[in-house]
Specification:
The protein is α+β, with helices and mostly antiparallel strands and 165 residues long. It is built from 5 helices and 6 strands; from the N terminus they run αααββααββββ. It has a single domain, classed as Muramoyl-pentapeptide Carboxypeptidase, domain 2 (2-Layer Sandwich), CATH 3.30.1380.
Length: 165
């Protein structure tokens, strides 16, 4: 009988990727169920971004913080019903060694928003290779987190889409 495998992030714990209710339900059976909910490329990308930009924060409710909706979201939580957070296809992150604006500028410098990026990225840009979209601004103002998603919505020209939410 074949044994299923799945990607386990190197740096993020299960409780950092979902809210308290989902984590507690998963923990009753197997904490790893949290990871099973995600597109593995999201978790791999989070690891690569962490290696480039330092320690990563997604949700911090487990350690007494206020963040709980920046990874996997339940259908009755914030955001669009069919949005990528509810399908394990998105994360909102902050990093120790770079601000979200610095990361987006780094992406600009590396050509991530230009046609052909996905087939011509350098080793330095490899951490962005699977990203389909990033949130850039909200109503014209820079957002204070780095949102990326990886799902069945890609630019046809091989670039990464920049969103104003």
């Amino acid at each position: 009988m074949a044994v299923p495998t799945f990607y386990t992030p190197k740096y993020l714990k299960a409780h950092e990727l979902c809210d308290r209710e989902f984590y507690n339900a998963a923990k009753k059976v197997n904490e790893e169920y949290v990871f099973w909910q995600f597109n593995p490329l999201v978790l791999m990308t989070a690891d690569l971004l962490r290696e480039r930009y330092g320690s990563i924060t997604v949700n911090n409710w487990f350690t007494g913080g206020s963040l709980s909706q920046r990874g996997l979201r339940s259908n009755d939580s914030t955001g669009a019903f069919f949005g990528p957070h509810k399908r394990g296809a998105a994360l909102d992150c902050n990093f120790k060694n770079a601000t979200p604006e610095e990361i987006r500028k780094d992406m600009e410098r590396l050509g991530c928003y230009k046609p052909g990026f996905k087939s011509n990225f350098t080793d330095v840009g490899a951490c962005f290779q699977h990203i389909g979209r990033v949130e850039n601004t909200e109503k014209g103002k820079q957002i204070t987190w780095f949102h990326f998603d990886i799902w069945n919505s890609q630019a046809t020209d091989g670039s990464i889409i920049k969103l104003d939410i």
